[in-house]
Amino acid sequence: MSKNVEEAPTEEEKVEKPEKVEKPEKRKKKEKPVFSLYKVEGGKAVRLRPTCERCGPGYFMADHGDRYTCGHCGFTRYKPAEK
Ligand SMILES: [Zn+2]
Question: Is residue 29 part of a domain?
Fold first, then answer.
């Protein structure tokens, strides 16, 4: 019975070196998808971030750990202490 023997690497494996390393395209500024601001719960969109009191709804505040900051007007609101 002849056995299918896989070709064994006889010579040293040729390492193909690309002559030119293509530069990666310009990195685009990462933008948070707007969907991350909402969470759908039971068919209802729940806002995960508070909106700015000064700028009104539509202006979300950034999460800074213990506080929220509005990037629009700079308004900072501290998170309510939990527990
Ligand atoms: Zn604001």
Answer: no
> What is this structure's pTM?
0.45
> How many angstroms is it from 32 CA to the middle of ligand 1?
18
Q: Is it the case that residue 46 has pLDDT exceeding 60?
A: yes
Helices (H), the chain: none
33 in a structural domain: no
Say how many Å lie between the CA of residue 40 and the centre of ligand 1. Answer: 25
Q: What domain range is 66 assigned to? A: 50-83
Asked if residue 54 belongs to a domain, the reply is yes
Q: Is 55 exposed, middle or buried (0-12, 13-18, 19+ CB in 10 A)?
A: middle
Question: Average pLDDT in the 7-12 region?
Answer: 66
Distance 41 CA to ligand 1 centre (A): 26
pLDDT(20) > 80? no
